[in-house]
Amino acid sequence: xxxxxxxxxxxxxxxxxAFEGWNDAGDAASSAVAHLDGVWKGEVFAALDAEDYYDFQxxxxxxxxxxxxxxxxxxxxxxxxxxxxxxxxxxxxxxxxIEPSMRWxxxxxxxxxxxxxxxxxMVVILGALLGDTPHTRPVPVSxxxxxxxxxxxxxxxxxxxxxxxxxxGILQEACTHAGVPAxxxxxxxxxxxxxxxxxxxxxxxxxxxxxxxxxxIPLGELAEDARAWQLGVDQLAAEDSEVAExxxxxxxxxDTADLPEASGEAIAREFERYLRRRDGGPGPGHAxxxxxxxxxxxxxxxxxxxxxxxxxxxxxxxxxxxxxPEE
Length: 327
Hints:
alpha/beta; 9 helices; 20% strand; disordered C terminus
């Protein structure tokens, strides 16, 4: 039985989850949930038992000093609640942790037990994957669901993915079987600059989340961090002609693929999105992701040079440097 003493009755709660590891390229998804937790000062009310789900030789505990006293932090998944006021108050249940090493079905059942007890209306799971996308263009974010009704009403894609999956895919399917509406938002991170952090991808996920749950998220310095990140990658790419040429190839492919989307319907959707953001003014610290070439991290951070683009391979050959696509 799940005990939730001290947790107030929630208003239209939505659960938002992200997990470090295979589903979190550039730490974009886990950073998005961390941002929500920080900006709204989330209060942790539960943590899953680390012994049940983690291999400590894979995800090791850490030792730290608290006033000279040695303490241990165990890898786990924590749940916190944030109360969002305003004209449309809505509470969020944030799930943030590491992809479990074992017993995934039990893990998902425990998360869903909390969702049931708290009256969660929808689960949104954030993920990020490596892709052939240029850092100079807006980060592609896809919204997928296994629920055809949800796909229709919220303008989402029904997932058609087949192949290896992570905890994001497993949790989404567990929600579907339990009758809980669930959506996964996936950001595509450039594979040639995959080192974390990637604030531009985090910003894109938060912008898409805003649209999905109709809630304005204070962004603080995240937009400026994203601009610094892109500037840094621009500078690194400019130092290597092969990388610069590869980025240009990705830009041309992306721009060509986007051309069919410049339909009247697509333009109308973007205009409506703009008006929703403009309504009531942006507010302090609010910004949107843009496609200009001004997003990146300061090179003084010590980021290494972007890896060379992968060499062409013959049919059936595996370069070994890309993760499998996710749902």
